[in-house]
Amino acid sequence: MISEKVIAEGLTQIKQELIRPSIRFINSHGDIISSENRVVYIKRLIANPYVQTNEYFNKEELFFLSKTYQFDIQESPECEGYFTSIIKSNPLYKRSANIILIEVDKKEYLIIEFNRCKLENQPRSAGEDQLGEDVTYIFGIWENPLLTDGIIAKIKNNEKQDKIIFNFMDHIVYIFKCKCTM
Q: Which of 15, 34, 54, 97 gives a 20 to 30 Å CA spacing to 6?
């Protein structure tokens, strides 16, 4: 089943669970924007007070993002000061969300998504494991997002950050650096 949602300028909260979604950007004429120079930065939405690097958000930055984009956060019961993003209404999502910053055609887009495996207790094939989690909860997509310079710098941190070029039309992903933060 294919479902389409056209996103207008500004704030869009999708809050929908999808199986391996493919997100495409369209122009005002309804044509898919194909840009081979699309740059995508991915960062886990967590605050870790035990490291002072650009690898993690600090507590204030995570609270700012939570308030601005209206997602929930909670403090770890094991590690005081360690905060993670959560979906309170769906306990199947045990991992923190990803915040994805996309630069294309002089515009920026922000996506917040949570990921999980469809069947947690069923063994998967090696091919499925290579693809990662198969269920994605798209929390929202925003055009020209409100972000501080410090948050942008952490999302774009090239030393510890995935830097990926996407070609959405052909569903091909080129990975230049890959040191994922958990």
A: 97
pLDDT at position 104: 84
**Position of tokens 């769906």?**
90
Question: What 3-state DSSP class applies to 134?
Answer: coil
User: How does strand 98-104 pair with strand 39-44?
Assistant: antiparallel
User: Which residue stretches of 122-161 are H helix?
Assistant: 126-131, 149-155
Three-class SS state of 46:
strand
State the sign of the Cα–Cα–Cα–Cα dihedral 28, 146, 162, 74.
Answer: negative
Whole-prediction pTM: 0.74
Residue 43 in tokens: 């960062």
Cβ atoms 20, 136 nearer than 8 A: yes
Residue in the structure block whose two tokens are 């830097």 = 163
User: Which tokens belong to 157?
Assistant: 């941190």
